[in-house]
Amino acid sequence: MKLRFISTALMLTICSFVISCNSGSKGKEEQAVTTNERKVETKEETKPAASQNSQNLPPSERVDLTNKGVGPIKSLELKELDQKLADKGQEIYKNMCTACHKPAKRFIGPAPKGILERRTPEWVMNMILAPEKMLESDPLAKELLKEFNGAPMANQNLSEEDARAVLEYFRTL
Amino acid sequence: MKTKFKLLLTCSVAGLLLAGCGDSKKSNKGALSTNAAEKVYVAPGEYDEYYGFFSGGFSGQLSVYGLPSGRLFKVIPVFSQDPEKAYGYSEETKPMLMTSHGFIPWDDSHHPDISQTKGEVDGRWIFINGNNTPRIARIDLEDFSTAEILEIPNSAGNHSSSYVTENTEYVVAGTRFSVPIPQRDMSIKDYKGNFKGALSFISVDQESGEMDLSFQILMPGFNYDLSHPGRGKSHGWFFFTTYNTEEAHSLLEVNASQNDKDFIAAVNWKKAEEYIKAGKGKKMPAKYAHNKFDNSTHMATHTMKDEVLVLDATELPGLVYLLPTPKSPHGCDVDPSGEYIVGNGKLSANLTVHSFTKMLDAIENKKFDGDAYGLPILKFDDVLAGVVEQPGLGPLHTEFDGKGNAYTTFFISSEVVKWKLGTWEIVDRKPTYYSVGHLMIPGGNSAKPDGKYMVAMNKITKDRYLPVGPDLNHSAQLYDITGDKMELILDFPTIGEPHYAAAIKADKIMHKSRQIYKLDENKHPYVTKNPSEAKVVRKGNEVHINMTMIRSHFTPDNIEGVKVGDKVFFHVTNLEQDFDVPHGLAMLGANTTELLVTPGKTETFVWEPKQVGVWPFYCTDFCSALHQEMQGYIRVSPADSDIELSWSLDDE
């Protein structure tokens, strides 16, 4: 388990180096490529969607309410909203997540607003608790990484309890 | 037949390899013809069996190696500034290097020793001495960082240090040079009878590890070279080698080599505790620094102490006895049982081994041979356990394997000699390359050595590696000592000049190694726990930036309103809570180093902009695929500008 994590980390590091080598040698060209990618995405977004689940939608907007992701959470049933838990989640979110996630606006990563209309609660929990695993094996997470300029979701070492509180907060957004 | 042929082939290949390296390697052939490579090979992704902590010598630091691979894992900054980690440069760590002489950026680190419980190394802390401006440092083996530095007053050339007693009751630090105590203006020529040596006993809090200079024993003006604790039956005693019992003050090379015998001083520290309880200690004014690093505020504090409790050995009977030991003994080593005390007489042809049991008997029956400044000299023949005859030239240090064998280094004849405790017979000798000083067996200074490997630390490297100019890093050599004969299996270069090392089984430490500092436990006065708390505040000409870092941006990353002549404090918090994701920060033109901030920590440096313009800062540690994007700008306006302070990230 640990070894696997290390090897994942190693792989990511190696990937980073490869990318750095490219940007180092190409310089301006690399920047142009990034800009192009963004433009492509914008175009995709403006295309009329055939259906909600169309593969033409950017991964952050796609709806997938069956995928539970990869990680420690296998099943999670949401009950009535627990406001106290949501308040606790908001506090944790403020300290652990806001560096990259604004509640209702795309930032370094996607906004959590309305996330449970697009993802299963298990998927969200696994993304918080085991982002390395998700980026390695979950197809949607892989695509999200691409959509968000290759900025990988950081593992902030939240306990399962804290991640659950953050999920409850997401329900209030 | 086939195997034989293969073996022959291996041998000849090894021989060929060696042939190119000069004559000096001839004696080394045997090692390479065996499976040495297999013995030291740690496959990619696998772990070493031992942590080895090697003194950094004149680098002032402590290096961490894996054994048996000889791979360097880390250099822990201790007594010297380290620009890589901003140690001694950041505002938080500068106080660690304060002394009674002010800020000192360097020292000469010597003898690392791992804390012990019941005579076994336990891996809580490791201690090391600064030799030049006498200090003892404690390194926390949870985060592999220097946690505390205590200056030692009345000491000079803090060499017979920093060895721990069997339950880490004390870390002991003895002076090499005797000096006037207290220091005063006097003629050097009046050394004899007036200079004194101080042996310091530093107590260690068993929970926090915090050190306190408990007491000092004042001794005659000899040089106190090395020391080791008694253990088992001799627990409660501490042994120090002395030289320059001639009390020479000049040309010691000649003048301190006149006496036939110097002494091993046996100090009864339990007796010292009794004397202190009985009120025999005297409080003496002394100025010394006590510096501590706090892992919750992430800051060091520096305080000065002004008093030390002193016991005068010449006035307190039963505290110290002298064991005559031939010719300027260097190493003073105690075997795992605590019975044998080995004096490695540098200029002696033989190794002298004293018996603790005989020593007690000689004390009880007053078998004295005069005294030195009132300290009883025990009769040599009545304390002698045995002599290792003619083992080599220039003995320095001895370690033990826990199987009844001792291993002694010989500097002049460049070899390690293995001999048997009790029979004193020599059973093996192997050359080292070259001029070996210390040697180390994991747990070798404890009741339970782990007699698998022995590392020889050599003073001279010469032709062992590709030449890189007139000076070379010192070379260490790893020997397999599981068989009857020692087998050289690896060479590896070291940092500075390692004076001693200490090793411990990896599984005693690795599982408790810290991975992050928890953000919600960060009590730094300038911590920024989330980006909404980031701010820039002006206080006169001081500008304080509360900044955060995470993969891969700073908050804020655009700052305006800084002026020439300002003193800009970057207080940077790494918001990451994941193992091994540090971020760096470097500011163009700052007259200091980068910061390298580990997850959950806050660190600070000061920048005094001198030129108008827009100046960038960036992350120095490749943190993610977007690391090259992790940057920011600060606008510096003329001193008389009225531009207000403002800051932003993504124009928000």
From TrEMBL, chain A:
InterPro entries, per database record: Cyt_c-like_dom (IPR009056), Cyt_c-like_dom_sf (IPR036909)
Gene3D superfamilies, alphabetized: Cytochrome c-like domain (1.10.760.10)
Keyword terms: Heme, Iron, Metal-binding
Short name of any one Pfam family annotated for the protein: Cytochrom_C
Polar residues: compositionally biased ranges: 49-58
Basic and acidic residues: bias regions: 28-47
Molecular function (Gene Ontology), one example: metal ion binding
Signal sequence segment: none
Residue numbers spanned by region Disordered: 28-66
Span of domain Cytochrome c: 84-173
Coiled coil: none
Descriptive protein name: C-type cytochrome
TrEMBL record, chain B:
Annotated localization: Cell envelope
GO cellular component: cell envelope
Gene Ontology MF terms in the entry: copper ion binding; nitrous-oxide reductase activity
UniProt keyword Methyltransferase present: no
Signal sequence extent: 1-19
Catalytic activity, EC: 1.7.2.4
InterPro entries linked to this entry: Copper_CuA, Cupredoxin, N2O_reductase_N, Nitrous_oxide_Rdtase_Sec-dep, Nos_propeller, NosZ/Cyto_c_oxidase_sub2, WD40/YVTN_repeat-like_dom_sf
Enzyme class: oxidoreductase
NCBIfam families: nitrous_NosZ_Gp
Protein's name in the database: Sec-dependent nitrous-oxide reductase
